[in-house]
Protein backbone atom coordinates (compact mmCIF):
# COMPACT_ATOMS: atom_id res chain seq x y z
CA UNK A 1 0.00 0.00 0.00
CA UNK A 2 1.32 3.45 -0.96
CA UNK A 3 1.84 6.17 1.64
CA UNK A 4 0.72 9.70 0.73
CA UNK A 5 2.38 12.79 2.17
CA UNK A 6 0.21 15.23 4.11
CA UNK A 7 0.68 18.89 3.21
CA UNK A 8 -0.75 22.10 4.63
CA UNK A 9 0.03 21.44 8.29
CA UNK A 10 -0.89 24.95 9.41
CA UNK A 11 -4.36 24.28 8.05
CA UNK A 12 -4.38 21.04 10.09
CA UNK A 13 -3.47 23.04 13.19
CA UNK A 14 -6.52 25.26 12.73
CA UNK A 15 -8.62 22.12 12.32
CA UNK A 16 -7.22 20.78 15.61
CA UNK A 17 -8.27 24.04 17.33
CA UNK A 18 -11.80 23.65 15.93
CA UNK A 19 -11.97 19.99 17.06
CA UNK A 20 -10.89 20.88 20.60
CA UNK A 21 -13.40 23.72 20.83
CA UNK A 22 -16.21 21.47 19.58
CA UNK A 23 -15.47 18.51 21.89
CA UNK A 24 -14.02 20.16 24.97
CA UNK A 25 -17.22 19.77 27.01
CA UNK A 26 -18.44 16.29 27.84
CA UNK A 27 -21.93 15.31 26.67
CA UNK A 28 -23.24 14.25 30.07
CA UNK A 29 -26.61 13.12 28.69
CA UNK A 30 -24.88 10.72 26.29
CA UNK A 31 -22.55 9.53 29.05
CA UNK A 32 -25.42 8.77 31.43
CA UNK A 33 -27.31 6.86 28.72
CA UNK A 34 -24.42 4.77 27.35
CA UNK A 35 -21.98 4.87 30.31
CA UNK A 36 -19.12 5.83 28.00
CA UNK A 37 -17.95 8.69 25.80
CA UNK A 38 -14.85 9.45 23.78
CA UNK A 39 -13.38 11.92 21.34
CA UNK A 40 -10.81 11.00 18.70
CA UNK A 41 -8.59 13.50 16.94
CA UNK A 42 -11.10 14.73 14.37
CA UNK A 43 -8.73 16.10 11.76
CA UNK A 44 -8.60 15.22 8.09
CA UNK A 45 -7.07 13.43 6.30
CA UNK A 46 -6.28 11.06 9.18
CA UNK A 47 -9.87 10.59 10.35
CA UNK A 48 -11.24 9.97 6.85
CA UNK A 49 -11.68 6.80 4.82
CA UNK A 50 -9.31 6.42 1.89
CA UNK A 51 -11.00 5.45 -1.38
CA UNK A 52 -7.65 4.80 -3.06
CA UNK A 53 -5.07 2.07 -2.64
CA UNK A 54 -3.00 4.23 -0.29
CA UNK A 55 -2.77 5.51 3.27
CA UNK A 56 -1.67 8.85 4.66
CA UNK A 57 1.68 9.36 6.35
CA UNK A 58 1.46 9.60 10.12
CA UNK A 59 1.64 12.86 11.98
CA UNK A 60 4.74 15.09 12.06
CA UNK A 61 6.29 16.18 15.38
CA UNK A 62 4.85 19.72 15.62
CA UNK A 63 1.40 18.46 14.69
CA UNK A 64 1.77 15.60 17.19
CA UNK A 65 2.52 18.10 19.93
CA UNK A 66 -0.54 20.17 19.04
CA UNK A 67 -2.72 17.04 18.98
CA UNK A 68 -1.44 15.98 22.40
CA UNK A 69 -2.04 19.46 23.80
CA UNK A 70 -5.60 19.28 22.45
CA UNK A 71 -6.21 15.92 24.10
CA UNK A 72 -4.92 17.25 27.42
CA UNK A 73 -7.12 20.35 27.20
CA UNK A 74 -10.19 18.18 26.58
CA UNK A 75 -9.10 15.86 29.40
CA UNK A 76 -8.91 18.77 31.87
CA UNK A 77 -12.42 20.02 31.03
CA UNK A 78 -13.91 16.51 31.05
CA UNK A 79 -12.30 15.87 34.45
CA UNK A 80 -14.09 18.89 35.92
CA UNK A 81 -17.37 17.78 34.34
CA UNK A 82 -16.98 14.26 35.77
CA UNK A 83 -16.01 15.51 39.22
CA UNK A 84 -19.19 17.59 39.26
CA UNK A 85 -21.26 14.42 38.67
CA UNK A 86 -20.06 12.99 41.99
CA UNK A 87 -19.83 9.36 40.81
CA UNK A 88 -16.86 7.00 40.22
CA UNK A 89 -15.48 7.37 36.72
CA UNK A 90 -12.81 6.34 34.23
CA UNK A 91 -10.99 9.10 32.38
CA UNK A 92 -7.83 8.47 30.37
CA UNK A 93 -5.90 9.69 27.36
CA UNK A 94 -5.02 6.92 24.92
CA UNK A 95 -1.87 7.99 23.08
CA UNK A 96 -1.00 5.69 20.17
CA UNK A 97 2.49 5.26 18.71
CA UNK A 98 3.10 5.24 15.82
CA UNK A 99 -0.62 5.50 14.96
CA UNK A 100 -0.91 8.91 16.62
CA UNK A 101 -4.04 9.77 14.63
CA UNK A 102 -5.95 7.07 16.57
CA UNK A 103 -5.32 8.83 19.92
CA UNK A 104 -8.32 9.87 22.00
CA UNK A 105 -9.80 10.86 25.36
CA UNK A 106 -12.09 8.21 26.85
CA UNK A 107 -14.54 8.50 29.76
CA UNK A 108 -16.76 5.86 31.37
CA UNK A 109 -19.04 5.41 34.38
CA UNK A 110 -20.92 2.49 35.92
CA UNK A 111 -20.27 -1.01 34.60
CA UNK A 112 -18.25 0.33 31.66
CA UNK A 113 -15.39 1.30 34.00
CA UNK A 114 -14.19 -2.30 34.40
CA UNK A 115 -14.36 -2.88 30.65
CA UNK A 116 -12.10 0.06 29.84
CA UNK A 117 -9.69 -0.68 32.69
CA UNK A 118 -8.79 -3.97 30.98
CA UNK A 119 -9.29 -3.13 27.30
CA UNK A 120 -5.60 -3.18 26.32
CA UNK A 121 -3.08 -6.01 26.59
CA UNK A 122 -0.16 -5.42 28.96
CA UNK A 123 2.81 -7.65 28.12
CA UNK A 124 5.22 -8.96 30.71
CA UNK A 125 7.57 -6.23 31.90
CA UNK A 126 5.22 -3.40 30.91
CA UNK A 127 5.43 -1.86 34.40
CA UNK A 128 9.11 -1.07 33.77
CA UNK A 129 8.40 0.71 30.46
CA UNK A 130 8.72 4.49 30.50
CA UNK A 131 7.40 6.96 27.90
CA UNK A 132 9.74 8.74 25.53
CA UNK A 133 9.58 11.66 23.11
CA UNK A 134 6.93 14.33 23.56
CA UNK A 135 5.35 12.53 26.52
CA UNK A 136 8.40 13.64 28.50
CA UNK A 137 7.59 17.33 27.88
CA UNK A 138 5.45 19.40 30.23
CA UNK A 139 2.54 19.21 30.83
CA UNK A 140 2.39 15.62 29.49
CA UNK A 141 5.16 14.64 31.90
CA UNK A 142 2.78 15.41 34.78
CA UNK A 143 0.58 12.51 33.67
CA UNK A 144 1.10 8.90 34.73
CA UNK A 145 1.56 6.86 31.54
CA UNK A 146 1.20 3.08 31.43
CA UNK A 147 2.44 0.88 28.59
CA UNK A 148 0.11 -1.32 26.50
CA UNK A 149 0.04 -2.83 23.03
CA UNK A 150 -1.90 -1.33 20.14
CA UNK A 151 -3.44 -4.32 18.35
CA UNK A 152 -5.89 -5.17 15.57
CA UNK A 153 -8.26 -8.00 16.51
CA UNK A 154 -10.01 -10.68 14.47
CA UNK A 155 -11.91 -13.69 15.70
CA UNK A 156 -13.06 -17.01 14.30
CA UNK A 157 -16.63 -16.06 15.20
CA UNK A 158 -16.59 -13.81 12.14
CA UNK A 159 -16.40 -16.92 9.96
CA UNK A 160 -20.07 -17.88 10.24
CA UNK A 161 -21.21 -18.90 6.80
CA UNK A 162 -24.84 -17.91 7.27
CA UNK A 163 -24.12 -14.20 7.70
CA UNK A 164 -22.81 -13.78 4.12
CA UNK A 165 -25.02 -12.95 1.13
CA UNK A 166 -22.78 -14.91 -1.24
CA UNK A 167 -20.65 -17.99 -0.75
CA UNK A 168 -17.81 -16.23 -2.57
CA UNK A 169 -17.67 -13.59 0.18
CA UNK A 170 -17.41 -16.27 2.85
CA UNK A 171 -14.65 -18.11 0.95
CA UNK A 172 -12.71 -14.89 0.37
CA UNK A 173 -12.76 -13.84 4.02
CA UNK A 174 -11.97 -17.36 5.22
CA UNK A 175 -8.88 -17.48 2.97
CA UNK A 176 -7.92 -13.94 3.97
CA UNK A 177 -8.10 -14.81 7.68
CA UNK A 178 -6.01 -17.93 7.16
CA UNK A 179 -3.43 -15.81 5.34
CA UNK A 180 -3.05 -13.16 8.03
CA UNK A 181 -2.89 -15.83 10.74
CA UNK A 182 0.52 -16.73 9.33
CA UNK A 183 1.80 -13.44 10.71
CA UNK A 184 2.90 -13.16 14.38
CA UNK A 185 -0.07 -12.73 16.69
CA UNK A 186 -1.52 -13.49 20.11
CA UNK A 187 -4.37 -15.96 20.60
CA UNK A 188 -6.90 -15.63 23.41
CA UNK A 189 -10.43 -16.78 24.22
CA UNK A 190 -13.41 -14.45 24.63
CA UNK A 191 -17.13 -14.91 25.19
CA UNK A 192 -19.26 -13.46 22.39
CA UNK A 193 -22.57 -11.64 23.10
CA UNK A 194 -24.46 -14.84 22.21
CA UNK A 195 -22.55 -16.71 24.94
CA UNK A 196 -20.35 -18.70 22.56
CA UNK A 197 -16.60 -18.94 23.16
CA UNK A 198 -14.57 -17.64 20.23
CA UNK A 199 -10.86 -17.50 19.49
CA UNK A 200 -9.42 -14.00 19.22
CA UNK A 201 -6.37 -13.26 17.05
CA UNK A 202 -4.49 -10.07 18.03
CA UNK A 203 -1.92 -8.49 15.71
CA UNK A 204 0.38 -5.88 17.19
CA UNK A 205 0.54 -2.50 15.45
CA UNK A 206 2.44 -0.48 18.04
CA UNK A 207 2.05 0.94 21.53
CA UNK A 208 -0.73 2.66 23.46
CA UNK A 209 0.31 4.89 26.34
CA UNK A 210 -2.65 5.25 28.71
CA UNK A 211 -2.37 8.47 30.70
CA UNK A 212 -4.15 10.00 33.66
CA UNK A 213 -3.59 12.96 35.94
CA UNK A 214 -4.21 12.61 39.67
Helices, strands, pairings?
Blueprint: E1 2-4, H1 9-23, H2 28-34, E2 36-40, E3 54-56, H3 61-85, E4 89-97, E5 104-109, H4 112-117, E6 144-155, H5 167-180, E7 186-191, E8 197-212
Parallel strand pairs: 1-3
Antiparallel strand pairs: 2-5, 4-5, 4-8, 6-8, 7-8
Helix pairs in contact: 1-3
What does this structure look like?
There is one protein chain. With about 210 residues, the chain is of the alpha+beta class. About 30% of the residues lie in helices and about 30% in strands. It has 5 helices and 8 strands; from the N terminus they run βααββαββαβαββ. The strands form 2 sheets. Strands 2, 4, 5, 6, 7 and 8 form a 6-stranded antiparallel beta sheet that branches. Strands 1-3 form a two-stranded parallel ribbon. β4 (about 90-95) and β5 (about 105-110) form a beta hairpin. α1 (about 10-25) packs parallel to α3 (about 60-85). The longest helix is centred in the middle third of the chain and has 25 residues, at about 60-85. It starts with a strand and ends with a strand. The relative contact order is 0.14. Mean pLDDT is about 85; it is low at about 1-10 and about 50-55.
Roughly what fraction of the amino acids lie in strands?
Answer: 25-35%
Q: Report the order of strands and helices.
A: EHHEEHEEHEHEE
* Count of distinct strands: 8
The profile of the biggest β sheet is: 6 strands, antiparallel
Short description:
This protein is an alpha+beta fold. The protein has 5 helices and 8 strands. A hairpin with a 5-residue loop joins β7 and β8.
